[in-house]
What we know:
Pfam families: HSP20. Residues 25-140 form the SHSP domain. It contains 2 helices and 8 strands, in the order αβββαβββββ. The protein is mainly β. It has a domain at 25-78 and 87-124: Immunoglobulin-like (Sandwich). The strands form 2 sheets. A 4-stranded mixed β-sheet has the order 1-6-5-4. A 4-stranded antiparallel β-sheet has the order 2-3-8-7, with no helix packed on it. The protein is elongated. Mean pLDDT is 79; it is low at 1-21.
Amino acid sequence: MTRDLGALWPARWDWPFGEGTSPRDTSPVSGFPLRVEEFREDGDLVVRAEIPGIDPDEDVEVTVDNGVLRISAHREERTRQEGDEFRSEFRYGSFERRIRLPQGADVADVAATYRDGVLEVRLPLPAERPETRSVPVQRT
């Protein structure tokens, strides 16, 4: 029964709110999706991606094109064997995530930093405007 349910639920969806659940997520099905968190802070959109064990100068590429932020990384497998036992639960290979940016995001001022295995991308967002505005009517 569990195997049948697995066939109905796409493997790239983590339940309940994992990879592939953001309405702005446009990640391709190939490769391993990066786990990210998105939030607003001090007028910026902040996207943080977990990418431990990589060299940010060599293994990461961050691009913005047509309103989509693309983060891609590659981690080479370095195997280590001790005796006859071998086990690795790490993911190796190519990782990618594409996120559609909110309208009005300032793509000219994107900044990315890497620290302690986390890539952080920041870009300014326009000030939020209230949906409804009252307009006074003047007599002429």
